[in-house]
Amino acid sequence: MENQRKVGKYEVIITVIATMLALLFLYAALSKLLDYDTSKREMLNQVFPRGISLILVWLVPVVELLIVQTLLFRSTRLMGMYFSSGLLILFSLYISITMSGAFGRIPCSCGGILKHMSYWTHLGFNVIFIVMAVLGIALEKQWNTVNRWFKFFNGRGGASKLSN
């Protein structure tokens, strides 16, 4: 019975983390796509060459939507958490380099509600979601290990029977 509760807790926490990450990336992608002109203008104001900015204006929301898709399914959730943490780390590094003055100027921030955040606030926001993604990765790996043991000792169904 105690093991059933542990498995259930893992699944709930992992699902909450995956859902929060999926909502973050869904919002980010949709805000870029639904207000494409503003998104394009803001991307062209970044420090990248024009050609790269024109690619990124489409590539970033497509990648964000792909991350959302990987987070929605149990079989790809771990990969989605890795991708989430990777993209958040890359963007946080970009914010940090920008804040350091390395580019000689500080371009405008992101669109959506995040544009009202300072770069420091945005960096803190990203760090919170990076920590969540890393926690999700650790829990997902631990849950997968527990699930394999349940399947081994209990036959087919394992933890999936226990968590229902």
Radius of gyration: 19 Å
How far apart lie the N and C ends? 13 Å
Beta-strand percent range: under 5%
Q: How many distinct beta strands?
A: 0
Helix content class: over 70%
Describe the global form. Answer: elongated
**Total domain count:** 1
Could you state the order of secondary-structure elements as H and E? Answer: HHHHHH
Low-confidence stretches: 158-164
Structural class by secondary-structure content: mainly alpha
Averaged pLDDT, please? 84
Note the quaternary state here.
single chain
Largest sheet: none
Number of contiguous helices:
6
Domain Methylamine utilisation protein MauE: 12-138
Pfam family, one: MauE
InterPro entries: Methylamine_util_MauE
Organism: Pedobacter psychroterrae
Report on this structure.
- It is a multi-pass membrane protein.
- The protein is an all-alpha fold and 164 residues long.
- It has one domain.
- The chain is built from six helices and no strands.
- Helix 1 packs antiparallel against helix 3, helix 1 (2-34) runs antiparallel to helix 5 (119-154) and helix 4 packs antiparallel against helix 5.
- It is elongated and about 60 Å long.
- The two termini are 13 Å apart.
- The model is unreliable at 158-164 (pLDDT under 50).
